Amino acid sequence: MIRIHPDPTGNPLSRRCLLSAGALGCLSLADALRLQAMGTPGGRQRTQRAKRVILVFLGGGLSHHDSLDPKPDATPEIKGQYSTIPTALPGVRFTDKVPLLAQSLSKATLIRSGSHNNDHHETATNWALSGRFGSPFGDYPAIGAVVAQQKGFTSALPPYVSIPRNPSFTWELGKSAFLGGRYESFRTGDPNQSGYKVEDVSSTATDLTKGQNRRKTLLGAVDNLARQIEKNDQMATFDEFHKRAANMVLSTEARRAFSIEEESDKLRDRYGRNTFGQSCLLARRLIERGVTFATINYGGWDHHAKIYESLNKKLPEFDLGLSCLMEDLAQRGLMDDTLLAVFGEFGRTPKINKDAGRDHWGQAASLWFAGAGVRSGQVIGSTDKTGAFATKRPVSPADVAYTLLDSLGIDPRTPLQSPDGRPIEILDQGEVIRELFA
Amino acid sequence: MSARAFCLLVLALPSVSIRAESIPSFTREILPLLTRLGCNQGACHGKGVGQNGFRLSLRGYAPDQDHAWLTREFMARRTDRAFPEESLFLRKAAGLAPHEGGKLFSIGSRAHTVFARWIEAGMPGPDSKEAPLLSLEIQPASAVLQPGKSIDFAAVAHFADGSTMDVTWLCKFDSNDPGMLECNSSGQARALIPGITAVRSAYGSEVATSAIRVPYASAIGGGPANGHPVDKVLGARLDSLGLSTSAICDDYTFLRRSTLDATGLLPNQEQREAFFQDKSPDRRAAHIDRLLQSSAFVDRWTLFLADLLQNRKERDHDVRGVQGVRSFHSWLRDKVATNTPWDQITRDILTASGSVKDSPAVGYYVVTVGEHQDPTRSEIAASSAQAFLGIRIGCAQCHNHPLERYTQDDYYHYAGFFSRLKLDRKEPEKGITQLLGTRPDTKAGANQPRTGQFLPPRPLDRTKYTPDKDSDPRVALAQWMTGPARNQLAGAMANRIWRELFGRGLVEPVDDLRATNPPVDPELFDLLAKEFDKGGMSIKNLVRFVMNSQTYQRSSSTLPGNSNDLKLFSHYPARRLPAEQLLDAISQVTGLPDQFPGYPLGIRAQQIPDPTFPSYFLKVFGRSERVTACACEREGEVTLPQLLHLQNNVEIQGKIRDPKGILKSALAQKKPPLEIAQALHLAALGRPPEAGVQTILARELASNNPEDVLSDLLWALLNSKEFSFQH
């Protein structure tokens, strides 16, 4: 499918231009379409569009030096402990802690120039998750909440899910902000727990289906509050979620989506028997069954001290879970219309500190994208020889958010309504990271 | 505060001829201009590391630094005195040299001319002889507009020497409610829809607002005349806006609403009987008085204070243990029970010292100072200002407050009051944590990290205070808060109490009182603050005062003429019950108390001192974790997991049919099913069932097992909005 995308930022074949095709300064419509199809710089070819997104959020900030953007030639306090290995791409090296991802790069795009300049967990996380810069308290809705609001339910499952829960440092992040509780993520809990159950969903309390009609009739009869009160958003939300909750509980398919034990032991082992591995597997089950935006919150990267003790354990988990997710999605034919995005709120400082850790660093971070038309096997951007600053093609949080929304077919400049009727566009900055799909 | 794309703003400032002889002042014109153009905003050069090598202090809070950076950094490459118009920074801002922030003004514009003249004059820096800025004023200070009508605002700066200056062109204007009143940055505003809001602006470190009223078209007059001061003031406000007021609610609704707000519990049979047996016209007032005398009142308002004062177990190195949390809770409970004035409680907490065992209020410092060696670097300054005064000075820890007059200096002066604290933390098994109010080796004051200056304690209103060598500066702080700052202290608490009773403060957020965020009804705000003070700063007295007003007793039903009003209490705001109240309500209705780990059976959720104990219900319904002083930690949203929980939670479902529960006990006593239905209905919703419900029940009971029908009824009641909402 060719998508003619109205892009205000420099695409000469904007919709306006195309609509007035034949007018001075425009190519003929046929030319234009041919250019679009060819994917020349004049027109953007978009053969894939995402139907859903899986976001792996590396809360705390992954050390890019020790994983996807090593600096083997730098001084020891920058280089770190790990040696490097070749990847599927000639000339591109990762550390030896992520050998599977080194191979998976043939199916993904790595961005090494994620860049902003905020080194504060909460502020940067809200920025990365919403695409808008605000205070640490989350003034703007997370992309997942926006997607929930724009796309709504496509099945009995909620559109926006966080596995196992939302990112949190001191307080919970990635929330729906002014969009209201209706668009908050649904938190699944930890699928790696033995006997994993989703609170109030998996367990069928009593025989809910029996007497369902009577309950409905009685509820309608006793509850007359809404008949008298208009324009109360909380009450409208309550009514909507009452129905959604009933759908979810009564739908076997929805409940089964969370039954991770239905997967074979072999596959569960392959993903890794840890919270991250099983979260990846659960995410796959959920997006297969109608979830539009699944956040896998994979925190714990905030290694201010003794970084290698932690990374020795964490990086193999990350390597295994993420590469397995990519393989599994591909095998099930889900890669074509699922966008997989992997990033945290920032990278980490080039120099290893006195406590053998690395600190917060907003100026450079590595991001990983795959699926839904993302080009296989490329690296976008780069950092300098100490991994401190982006030297090529800096990518901002707004660009990332813009790309996710745009892939799902949501215009990022759509105005949202605050509860008091104030129009606020989803994103005020950013543009599609074109090279991703080039 | 949204960080907009200030740098992308292309401003078309009018070109005005300017007297050639005057030299532009750095503080009065150049810096405000940099702010007005957005150069020193957080998204551009104003952020910590600057932008593309050029750094300015955020909104000009550090004039000396800005002057040096602008005129001297990199061998003064940014300015060219010989050819002012060739100065790099002017060329960039005028779009003649590459500039990520775009073109900000044209050649020959007023901004361009002023910058050029300043460079030509030798780029004078901050002038200490210049009279300091006293205040900013927006003209007009208030206005009534019809929808669709426009107005132009002007800004005037007042200086200490009595002089004034028109600074309209140097100020950026904003509407507090752009959906209601749109306002461009130059101060041209247009009314869109009816309501009440303010336009704000800032100049230097001063801020100002103008109050705007846009009346509703459908003026149906106010409510019935009434002697209560709240109704008089708010009635006049609603009249002036043409907002209709909803009728007074019925007795059942009043009973439920007032009992929940005052005591956190649903009204019980006894309370209902006492109320309806009283045939006097003031039986509502009598009911309120009974509520205020109950021990449940004490529990409910202790919880309110415990949230505010962040009473919680620490996460990592807890030095009080649960015992300490409980003793601070008991201490607070005792203050509520004895109706201790809020200024007294404030003083007691602010000056608390000694061991956590003998002086439970020291717990406030255990949480807010934590492990910081230097208390002026801890959260105590920001927390205490927010909790007691409703002032958010946290921003000023790193830079001047963007929407308030508070500077970074103000923050550290204020933090200095806590500088002589010494918290001697000990793990409970190794001894008792002590707080010393006067660390002998420490001078009172705090280091301002940016300037390196040592700032002595000074209250936020910048009045002078001279610390003496041996005293605890906190004593002076408490004197200031309960003395000169008394109105602020009273207003902040009165606003919070109002919010407890209406779900919404007169100022929102409830702990963000500032000149640029005025109350929806300033007169009512003042009235409440005065009434609170007059009533001995007693929570109980203010609750009584407000609950007896018609405003509090209005129906939550909307009228065509007031359904759009979400701010002015023309009808009572319906909202979801807070987590603890809802959980206790379910226990009450089902007749089965919850068992909380570590507490005896029968203790209610609202009575639990420590918010960190695990409870899925309380978490999912948004109890406060008390990590910060922010009232926003308690969440009132309605979410999907809440509805799943009410419908399908195993424990709640179990309570419906529990052999010891209300339903099965009644059935065991062979009570007639319709009578049981009536009792369930009354217990959950506080009113008898309507005829329609009776008909359905009679029909269902005729052909089904009564237990099935009645348990479905109880399920329906617990899943109704009328149950989950305060209304």
Considering residues with a beta carbon less than 8 A from a beta carbon on another chain, report the largest interface and each chain's count.
Answer: A-B, 64 and 75 residues
Beta-strand percentage of chain B? 5-15%
The percent range for strand residues of chain A is: 5-15%
Tell me about the largest β-sheet of chain A.
8 strands, mixed
Brief write-up:
The complex is a heterodimer of chains A (438) and B (727). Chain A is of the alpha/beta class and 438 residues long.
Your description of this structure?
The complex is a heterodimer of chains A (438) and B (727). By secondary structure, chain A is an alpha/beta fold. Chain A is built from 13 helices and 16 strands. In chain A, the strands form five sheets. Chain A has an eight-stranded mixed sheet with strand order 6-5-7-1-8-11-4-12, sandwiched between helices. A two-stranded antiparallel sheet of chain A has the order 2-3. By secondary structure, chain B is α+β, with helices and mostly antiparallel strands. Helices cover 39% and strands 9% of the residues of chain B. Chain B has 28 helices and 17 strands. In chain B, the strands form six sheets. In chain B, strands 2-10-9-6 form a four-stranded mixed sheet. A three-stranded antiparallel sheet of chain B has the order 1-4-5, with no helix packed on it. In chain B, helix 1 (26-37) crosses helix 5 and helix 8 (269-277) packs antiparallel against helix 9 (283-293). The chains are: A alpha/beta (438), B alpha+beta (727). At the A-B interface, strand 6, helix 7 and helix 8 of A face strand 16, helix 22, helix 23, helix 26 and helix 27 of B.
Q: What are the defining features of this structure?
A:
heterodimer, A: 438 residues, alpha/beta, 8-stranded mixed β-sheet, 16 strands, 31% helix, B: 727 residues, alpha+beta, 3-stranded antiparallel β-sheet, 39% helix
